[in-house]
Structure formats: C-alpha cells, structure tokens
Design goal:
Elements (H helix, E strand, L loop, with lengths): L1 H29 L2 H4 L6 H8 L3 H18 L11 H17 L4 H11 L6 H14 L5 H12 L4 H12 L8 H7 L6 H14 L4 H31 L7 H5 L15 E3 L5 E3 L5
Helix pairs in contact: 4-5, 5-6, 6-7, 7-8, 8-9, 8-11, 9-10, 11-12
C-alpha cells in the first residue's frame, strides 16, 4: 500500500512538474527579448561577484552569447539580429574577456560576428587590442585588427602597423611583411582583402565560421574577377564599360560570376564594382 501511494505521489509530482515547465516555457516566449538580453553587469561588479571563479564566469558569458547567436538562425525576419542585440553581444563578450583576457574564443567569435554583420568595427578592435596586449604571443589578434582597419575603416597606415606587429610574433605567416608593405599603397583593396581572407580561412577550425568566411571570399573573388575584366576592357577599347554586359558582348569574359549573397554585381557611377546584396 505504501509503495502504491509513493508511486502515485511520484506520478502526481511528475505531472505537476511537466505542467509547470510547459507554463514556464510558454511565459518565456511571451516575454520581450530585451528583458533577457538588454543589460550586462559592469566588469568590476562581475569580478566581485565571480569571487575566485573568473574563468568560469568568463566561460558562462561567452556561452551565453554563443547560444543566443545560434538561436537567431531560427528567425525569419530581416535583419536576423537587431542592432541592440549586437550591442548586447559585444558587451557580453567584452565582459567575458575582462574576466579572462587570455581566453581566445570570445575574440575569435566576436571578430567573426560583430564586424561584418554587426558593424561594430571600432568596438571590436578595442576588444581585440585588449586581447593582443595579454596574448602577446598570438599573431592572429593583431592580424584581425589589421584587416578591420584596412577593409572596414580604410585606414591602411594603421592596418600596416598591426600587420607588422603580427609578423613579429611566433609562427606568423611569412607573407605578413609583404602584405603590410602593399597596404602602404592605395588601391588593390579587393585583391588585398582576398589575401587576408585566405589567410584567415587557413587558421579557422570551426566549420560554420569557415563557411561564412568562404562565402565572403567567393563574393570578393567575383568582384576581383570583374575588376580585372574592366581593366582589360579599358586597355582594349580605350574607354570604360558602362555595364557589365559589355564585358561579355565584347568577348572580354564569358559570363558574369554570381554573388553568393543573392545580389547582382554592377558597375557603380565611380567605376567600381558593387553588388545589390549587403556585402560590405
């Protein structure tokens, strides 16, 4: 009898528990996003509350940003991630690296997600610069800063400085000094960007991030191909083409490459190759 009562009680408790979980899940879905992801405690307070577990707290904050970013792929609306959410991700990753400035993953994840889509270039560079000071053996962090200054901020001088710093660190690619010298000259932005991304892909282990970089690389290769075709057209006909179709009708190229982001390449008013997609 006692055993029957115990089993019955357990079944009732289990049913109540499942009901409560269901209600909690439903209520959580009805909460606005900014209740969960609008605020990050300042780093000094986090350091106090973490006690001697700075590393564990840093891991938790990084995983929080990682899980949140992954959850946004279920969204159908565009933009997929809102501006304030990118800001929250930056604050979370910055706090994570304040707690453990030697932890590489937040820098890596932040640079891949906060620059291209989030447009938080200067903020990301500030975080990477912090990591570069602590991880003074790591050439990848100054390399990332160099790329961001070159590609997004168009500051070739500062980009060259960071590449030279990266080239002095152990196991850095031998091409870095040459690439730094190339940045001293204006122009060849797309060609240099292709070289940058090829090097980044070589050092990217995460398959999802690698696919993201490869997609961007393919888009830039398409632009570079068309830029060179325009130069060939000008050399042959002594005037620039007005539309990309002219490159095919004049047998300069056989076909126009596809933009992997779904846009269409075109010749802008200034003569540069642009795309209708959101590739920056």
């Amino acid at each position: 009898m006692k055993r029957f009562l115990a089993v019955s009680l357990l079944c009732i408790l289990l049913a109540l528990h499942l009901f409560t979980l269901g209600r909690a899940a439903h209520q959580r879905k009805t909460l606005p996003r900014n209740v969960d992801y609008s605020y990050v405690l300042p780093s000094p307070i986090l350091k106090i509350t973490a006690l001697e577990f700075d590393g564990l707290a840093s891991d938790f904050l990084f995983l929080q940003a990682l899980v949140f970013e992954g959850s946004t792929f279920e969204r159908k609306e565009r933009p997929r991630v809102k501006e304030w959410e990118y800001r929250w991700m930056y604050n979370t990753l910055s706090a994570s690296t304040d707690l453990d400035p030697y932890f590489f993953d937040p820098y890596y994840f932040g640079n891949a997600n906060l620059t291209w889509e989030g447009n938080l270039i200067r903020e990301t560079n500030t975080m990477l610069d912090k990591g570069s000071r602590y991880r003074d053996w790591d050439w990848m962090l100054p390399f990332y800063i160099g790329f961001n200054n070159f590609y997004f901020l168009q500051d070739n001088e500062k980009a060259s400085e960071y590449l030279m710093e990266a080239s002095k660190r152990p196991n850095s690619p031998s091409l870095l000094p040459t690439l730094a010298a190339r940045l001293a000259y204006k122009g060849k932005k797309t060609e240099n960007a292709v070289i940058f991304l090829q090097e980044i892909i070589k050092k990217t282990d995460d398959e999802s991030t690698k696919k993201t970089y490869e997609k961007r690389l393919n888009a830039l290769k398409g632009i570079l191909f068309l830029e060179r075709a325009v130069v060939a057209y000008q050399d042959r006909f002594k005037k620039p083409p007005e539309k990309l179709d002219e490159l095919m009708t004049k047998d300069v190229i056989r076909e126009i490459p596809q933009d992997p982001y779904g846009g269409e390449f075109y010749i802008d008013k200034d003569g540069s190759i642009k795309t209708t997609s959101n590739l920056r």
